[in-house]
Design goal:
It is a single chain. This protein is an alpha/beta fold. The chain has 7 helices and 5 strands. Residues 16-31 and 199-204 have low confidence and may be disordered.
């Protein structure tokens, strides 16, 4: 016959196991849950102050400098630019609240993007440009052709924070290299660009 102590230990063990399983299930679901995405303008917004190239397509990535999911997006951007060297002007536009300073905004994501060959990292004060392009999730990529027409919108990771082959990067490589367009819209996996919790000083 089991003692009361043994039964309590078994009960505690079962509860702990259930909590672990629930946490794992939540994590898997979270990683596969895309962020919110608006519909990007079909033509380059006239009010935008981002310098669009006129001799080649322009690729924009909108990012939050403290979104951990975006590390994978920057890594995939590095692979993309290596595969399509010089075929597009590439700009990573980082959200920056006007009341914050350099210590808040200059993170490892900013430094990683700034160090990529052929990539320009720029600040988007208070998310004005992200709003103009209807971009809501960090890591969203937009590709506009020479005439300023939208030809791709979406993300370049297959889930939150995961690197590797994905439909977004494959589609962009195909478009920029003049091949088939496998996909023109893909989900974006990342944090909200204007997330108030990260904007109050969460660690990068």
């Amino acid at each position: 016959m089991y003692s009361l102590k043994s039964l309590l230990l078994v009960a505690v063990g079962l509860i702990w196991l259930a909590l672990v399983c629930a946490s794992f299930a939540w994590l898997v679901r979270y990683e596969s849950l895309p962020g919110r995405t608006g519909t990007a303008p079909g033509s380059w917004p006239e009010e935008s102050r981002i310098d669009r190239a006129t001799d080649r397509p322009t690729l924009l990535m909108f990012a939050h400098p403290r979104c951990p999911c975006t590390r994978a997006s920057i890594a995939e951007l590095a692979r993309l630019t290596a595969q399509c060297e010089g075929r597009a002007r590439v700009i990573v536009s980082f959200f920056r609240p006007s009341e914050t300073g350099k210590d808040w905004s200059v993170t490892d994501l900013w430094r990683s993007a700034s160090s990529l060959p052929g990539v320009t990292a720029a600040w988007d004060d208070d998310g004005v440009e992200a709003h103009r392009f209807h971009s809501e999730t960090s890591g969203q990529v937009l590709l506009y052709d020479i005439r300023g027409r939208l030809v791709f919108e979406g993300g370049i990771t297959s889930s939150r924070g995961h690197e590797g082959d994905n439909a977004g990067r494959s589609a962009l490589v195909a478009i920029l290299n003049g091949g088939e367009r496998d996909s023109l819209r893909t989900p974006v996996f990342g944090c909200s660009i204007s997330d108030p919790q990260m904007a109050t000083g969460a660690k990068p």
